[in-house]
Prior knowledge:
Elements: E1 2-10, E2 13-15, H1 26-35, E3 40-45, H2 48-51, H3 57-67, E4 72-76, H4 82-91, E5 95-98, H5 100-104, H6 108-115, E6 120-127, E7 130-131, H7 144-154, E8 158-163, H8 175-184, E9 188-191, H9 198-205, E10 214-217, H10 226-236
Parallel strand pairs: 1-3, 1-10, 3-4, 4-5, 5-6, 6-8, 8-9, 9-10
Antiparallel strand pairs: 1-2, 6-7
Amino acid sequence: MLLIPAIALKEGRAVGVDGKPYRETPEDFAARLADAGITRLQLVDEDSMASERPQALDVLERIARRLDGSVAIQVVSGVREEDHVQSHLDAGAHWLVLGHRAASAPHVLKDLCLEFPSHILIGMNVRDGRMIGDAHSKLPNHDLVDLVEHFQSDGVHGVVYRDVDAEGGPAALDAEQARTIAGAVSIDVIVASHIDSLESLEAACALAAAGVAGAVVNGALHDMDFTAARRLVEENA
């Protein structure tokens, strides 16, 4: 199982779950994680969610240059146009984690997977057993396993599963649901629910035997011992 720290980016700065910027630059933050032995990193381009355009390419380029290939990078973005995906890959991303807008638009996801094989992941925000979408989206009407099987048939490299609360923030991991999804498909399933401590990470690691490929840590980054976290994940792999 992979340990995947997440760094949220807003207006060019790394921010915490409260939206307040950290003192570290994003590239210093990423380099510190790399020094702790992290091999995969998630960047969340918060500004792109509303605009559906890349807003953090310069930060991505600086981080990729600083890490110099030692860490693979996946970027959560609101984009869904081919040229925007290409611009992320050119800037140093290995994967794009796309959201419900790309997943629910007819043919968009399949076309992107054909154009960029092995580079497209789908982020699944889940509440009450259903994937969240826009008001007119049909995604919440479908069973989660059916959806993941559909995404697999479209050619996605994997899914990033995230339990969310009523406000859209990370909620406690539904381990049974994640286990069921991982057992239904052969693509990568990564969990990204409320994993912000060694205790909650250990619970996520228990899913490695069920085929869950990785766990995104999305809170308390400055307070966690990532060397210990990496060791915990390796011991449970």
